[in-house]
Structures are given as C-alpha cells and as structure tokens.
Fold these 2 entries.
Entry 1:
Amino acid sequence: MSLTPQDIARIANLARLELKPDESERMLTQINGFFGIVEAMQAVDTTGITPMAHPVAAIQDITLRLRPDVASEPNQRDLNQQSAPAVERGLFLVPKVIE
Amino acid sequence: MSDLHNLSVKALATLLQTKEVSAVEVATRFLARMGGNPHNAFLDIDSEVTLAQARASDAKLADGTAGPLEGVPVAHKDVFVTRDFDTTAGSKMLSGYRSPFDATVVQRLRTAGMVTLGKLNCDEFAMGSANENSAYGPVQNPWDTARVPGGSSGGSAAAVAAGLAPAATGTDTGGSIRQPASFCGITGIKPTYGRASRYGMIAYASSLDQAGPMARSAEDCALLLSAMCGGDIDRDSTSLDIPTEDFSASLNNSLEGVRIGIPKEFFGEGLAADVRAAVDGALREYEKLGAKLVPIRLPRTELSIPVYYIIAPAEASSNLSRFDGVKFGHRAKDYTDLVDMYKKTRAEGFGNEVKRRIMTGAYVLSHGYYDAYYLQAQKIRRMIADDFQNAFKQCDVIAGPVAPSVAWKFGENANDPVADYLADIFTLPASLAGLPGMSVPAGFGAGGMPVGLQLIGNYFKEAQLLNAAHRLQQATDFHLRQPEGLQ
C-alpha cells in the first residue's frame, strides 16, 4: 500500500502540523519508503495472540496502577508557569476561541 | 591530582570518602575540561550550580552523612528534567525550558551524593541513532570527530569517552544507551523495563523508554544502576514495585558453566566483518572464562524493525501532543486562531525526524488503520518476547553485536531515514521485550573505531549481565583505552 498526498494532508491536520509543500512531498516519499519495510509485518499470522502493552507481561500479570484521586503535590503555580509563552494573572493565555 | 578525569566512579568515590580529594576539587577539574564544550556534548552548563552541589557534598563528607557516591560527578541526558538546569530534549520546542521539579532518576542520584555537571546533547526527543537530529547541532565521536557518536544518548557517550564526565545517564527506547556506548567505546546498561522510574523523563515511547547509566566499566555502571533503580509507584504507573538491589554484589561471580546463547540471526549477512571479528574475539574470551556458547534462534529479529517503528511513533504522536505552545515551550509569533497557533508552533518547534514519527504514528493510530498496524505490531511484540523466553530455556545470557557496523561518518545516512532504522536491528528485539541489555567494549574495527558486545539478560537479571561484563573487563582492557590525542 502507498499513502497519497491527500493522506499526508489529512494526517498533518490531525497531528496539528503545518507542512510546507516541499516538506509534504518529502514526507510522502519517506513515509512510503518506510511502509515498504512494514509489509513484512502484514504476513505474520497473529491469530489468538494477545497484544502486549507492558513488556514484563511476557512473564507475569501486570496491572497498571491507579492511585487514589487526592492531591499529592503542593501548589506551585508560579514555578509551573515560569516557562509558559503567555501568562496573565496566573492564567495561560490563548487566542480567542469563542466569539 | 591532574588525572582525576581518568579515574573510575569507584576510585573517585573512594578518594572522596577518604578525603584525599574534595568534591569541589573534582567538580572544578571536570568543569575545566568541559570549557569550550568539546564535541558539542553539553547543552547546559552552570558552574555555580555544580560547585554549590559540590560544596554541599563536602559538608556531608565532613559530617559523616555522605551518600555512597558523594561528590562523584555525573551529567544527565537532556531528556531528564532538572530544576537547576534547562531541559530541552534536544528540541527547539523546549529552548530555555526550566522544569519545576527533578526527575526521579536525577533526584535518586543526588540522594546518593552525585554532583550534577550539566545536561547532555541528544537526538531531539531521543529520536535518532546518530545524534544528528539534535536542534543544537550534532555531537562528535571523540574517537574520530568526522563520525557520529551514535544516538540518541550521543552526548552521554561522548562525554564519558572524552573524560568530560566519569559517568552519565542515558535513556534507551530502541537502543539509545547500548548503541552510542558501543560507538564510543564505553559501557552502558538498559535495565528491565519498569526498574527505573520514568517520572520526569520526557516521554518518547512510554512502553519502551527506560533509563540507565553509561560509564567506562561494568563496575561503575553497577554503582549507578543500584542508586537509580527502585519503585516509584505513586509517580510512574509503569514502575515495578520491586526492592532496590545491590548490583555490585555479584560482579566477581565465576562464569564457569554459564551458558551464553548466540542468536544465529545476529550474525547474518548484514553484519560487518570487522564487527564480527571483535565480537567473536569477546566470545572466545568467555569460553576461556569457562562459559559455554550455545546456538539459539530469535526468528523474528528482522520483524522487530517494522514492529518498533510502528509502536514507538504511535506512542510518540500521542506523547508529543502536549507540545502545543500553551503551557510551556515555543509558541509561533504569527497565527490567525488557536488551531493555526498549534500548527505553526509545532511546525517551527519540531525537527524533521520528530515530524516524520508524529505523522507515522498519527497515521497508524487513525481510524481504519489501528488494527492493521498498531494492534498487529503489539501482537508480534508479544511473539518476539515469547521467542526470548524460549531462548532463555537454553541459555543464561544472550550475546551478539550491538550494531551491524562501527560508527558511520556524518551525513552518510542523512537523506535516508530508513537506513538509520535498519541499523537498529540488533538492539530493537530486547527493547520490545523489555529485557535488560548492555554494551561492553569488545575491541576495535574499521578506522580504529570501537566495537561493542551486546549482552541481553532475562527480566531482572541485570546483576548477571553486569557480572558477565565485569569478568570480561577483568580479562581484557578495551574499556580502558582512550581516543588518541585525548588531553
């Protein structure tokens, strides 16, 4: 299978990436080049195999933990916002979303 | 003492504990070597911070509250967030970013007494095998500055090889500790997935990312790994709740009767003759040490390339969605609305390889393709992990090359990302299976470049790997050699 320029445009939009025309073109060639080596995967019979998310699940049951929903961190708003691009009165600023 | 930079972590720790040198003296010596940023290994250096930590270590050494590695310097790969240094992950997206907290691994090494020298260059968001994807320029290999140091922990490997730091942290998602360690002639270990906390380690592919130490010897790696590992159950949901371990305890165990599995698939056509010769030499040493070589099969070795390059980008596309120009990092200057701001910010902040992986990941996770790619890859991932379990019925440790060739020259693979992907073939299987793996200097190949031997152990068998590596290093001196002309 091969991706089309339309696929690249659709995915770039989903991934919120603005691509220049020459960048899209290069991306198309390179991603299709990569999918050339993915073909081998499609031929593998995986009937009855459970997908593996945590690798150590190969030898023991692994359940991802949830901790109680209680605040464990102190409030450090200033520190958390020190690297934000735009902040005012402790709030993150973004372009207007609702008219 | 003018040769402090040639001493091992262990030797430095002893000199510091016996007060033959002070932490400030040691830190000063390394800071002097780091001046001018040789090999472009560092991304952030702040001598005031380092010296303040060294003074605090000297105080602890004086009042008897010192940790086991008190005053020994370490430098961190720039994907570990740090309160006192900038953290960029090698990306323009995080230029000047300052974290409000320290990664657990950073904090644990501080608790053990280590003094931070600075932050080390790496491929952007740890995506790369040559350190050519850093937004801050490539790192040079100290053995030949026209060659890549490997990646993604290229700064870590170069810094240790060039005597800019006695040890460094790295992260390994598909080989990013083992391959640069091999290319730069140092020792590095990636522990079992879940051993070291991922808290504060900027996520690339969450089900694969694992932290580990890089140093000159297995003995030094054992010291750092013992301090780095341990459950972090409240902060990392994938951290395994297992007690800390003293990985130095069994370094000297005999290898008599130990079965070393040799996977046929690691010694095929793609393996360069010079690498093969060095690896074969190391295997002969093991036979002299009493180990038995056993042929084994890892039949899905080649499949690990597409499987990895589906799973890792899928997870990356999700993890990197947080970089949107709102809460931290770069924001584009001109935009029309919120979505346009996201798109332009991400277009400007990310480099080519990162964009490619985000695109691939978003595609394989998108409607209609998820089952065929992502899910299929996760199923084959289990088959690969099962192959290892079968192999470990016949052997205790698996050995083979780390990479098909020695470090290549800059620009050789530049227009062909797939060429870099293919070169990861021997490190990807253990990554997908979450097994511990390490690189141990095994000799030299073309152009006098170092060759690493890869050792892979079963889950939680880091001590056994380090034992095997240490015994080899008692019998050989490859790990002690240094690049010519090193000051």
Entry 2:
Amino acid sequence: MKRFLIPLAVFFVLLVFLAIGLTLNPRDIPSPLKDKPAPSFNLPQLAGAGKTFSPSDMKGRVWLLNVWASWCVSCRQEHPVLVDMGRRNAVPIVGLSYKELRGDGEIDASRINPADEAALAEKRAQAWLASHGNPYQLTAMDLDGRVGIDYGVYGVPETYVIDKAGIIRMKHTGPITPESLQKQILPLVAELSK
Amino acid sequence: MRLRTLLFCCGLLFAGVTLAKEAAPMAADVEVEKRMVAISEELRCLVCQNESLSGSHAELAQDLRREIRKMISDGKSDKEILDFMVARYGDFVRYRPPVKPTTWLLWGGPFLLLAGGIAALVAFLRRRAKEVAAPVLSDEEHRRAAALLDSSKS
C-alpha cells in the first residue's frame, strides 16, 4: 500500500500544477511598459482637420488609450462597454485607430495608393464609429502600426491606463468586459485621480 | 489546341503574379536579410506564440521584420535590436530569456528535476542492494550446505 502513496502524491501535485496552468491565459503577457512613461508620438486626429494628437496633450489627466480597428471583431464586443463609459464621462478615452486598412486581412494593402490611404482609412473609421457609437474624446490614426509597435500592441483591442504624469499604469489586452471595468480599470482610475 | 494555349497563358500569368509577390518583401541587401532572419529566429511571434518571428506570416510579424530590417540598415547592433523588442514586448519575445531572479526556476528547474531523479535512483539502488544482499547463513545451514555439496561430489 505504502509504495503507491508516493506516485499518488506526485500525481496530485502534477494535477494541481496542470489545473493552475489551465486557468492562465497565454495571451495575457505582462507588459514591460507598465510603470514606464507612455511612448510619445504625434499622429493626425480622425476628422481633426489637420490637427494632431500627442500623449503630452493629456498631461495632468488620467486617461485611457484604447487601440481599435473597424476590422477587429473583438472591438465590436467591447465597444458597448466603452460607449457606456463615455456616456457617463467616467474617464477620457482616446482612441488609437490601429492599421485601419493595412491590418484588414481582406484588403491587399499593397494595392492601396499611398496618397489615398489616409482619406480612405478615415472614412472607414468614421463610418464604424457612426454606426457603433463614438466614446472617444478623439481618435489618433496609426495607419502603419508604427506607434502600435512602440506600445507593444500585438492584438487589438488593447487598453492602457495612463496617469497624470503620463506613466502607463495598466495594460489590458483583449476586450474590456463589464467585470474587468468594474474590478480593475475604474478602481485604478479612481485611485490615480485622487 | 486553343484551350491548351489558353491554359499555358494563364499559367504564365500566375507565374508572374507569384514571382512579383514573393520578391516584394525581400530586402535588396542579402546581408541585411541574413541578419534579419538570424535575429528574428531568436524572437517569438506574439500573435502565433509557437512560431518564431522569422517563420510567422502574421501581420505583426511582417511589420516587426520590416522594423528589424530598418534597424539593421540604420547600423544598429543585434543587441540594440533585441533590446528594442524586449522593451516593447517583454522577455516573453525571447526564446532564450535572460537569467535573472524571475527566470532562475525556468533555467534551473530541469537541473533540479535531474538532481531529484538521480537522488531517487541512488536511494532506490541502495535499498535494492540491501534487499538482495547475500543472506547470512547460520552454522546449521553451513553444515547442511556442505553436506549437500559433498554428497553431489561422490
């Protein structure tokens, strides 16, 4: 009887490890940008008539940077949460339109005339916001995804909580759910706004 | 006959298309390409996590390869390029993460398991050696054994 005890114990230890492993999300990669200054950029605003946006414009405020695209299916899932948040004026949300045309698998980006790209992307982004609601204070257009690389974006949607000093305090990968909003994002925003 | 000519023309047409598509992302400089591949083989594609950045067809992988090419052309060293990636995506992008307190278990774990296995093996062998050790015979048993051996001799 005793000789079976050790393999049985080893088996249960393994079982516990595997069970913990199953609950982890392999997509949830800790961002090295947490507690680092938000990378600066200067991008044209959607329908901004030539105006640009830079993270330093938000100095002194706690804000969210939400990376989205009209071709992104999960963005559709999270959008009602953002729209609701925008309606309640909980926290300013800035949109980062990520590779609106080039990221769309159904478009052959090499066929787009570079001169037309910005206008076409704006049109698509605006149409999407018109039909799904616009929770954004403004949207910056990252056509080639270069700013996305600086922010370590690897899957849209992604959301960054940035504090008054311009430091990234949290990165949320994947769609924001009402739970993650209530349990993580809003409490953090409230704490940072003090 | 006409159909065959038509098919042949179609074939030629597509051959041209595929060639053009394959050639487009190739950098002009073969050396740059070689270094890019060497670096990107050390990096994980974050979209398809079991693929290297070099082998992945994901959009992001293509963007990052383009970025690496650009950095090579700008004269950046391999280490600078690796640091660029790690600063954005974390140690997770490296297939060979650096040795530091949070990765000690990762690097040392296999050796710990090996040591544990060797210890278990040694303990097992010692115990077995004890179990199968030659039995100590009593005087009576010696006499009986000697008697049996003698009787078989004759």
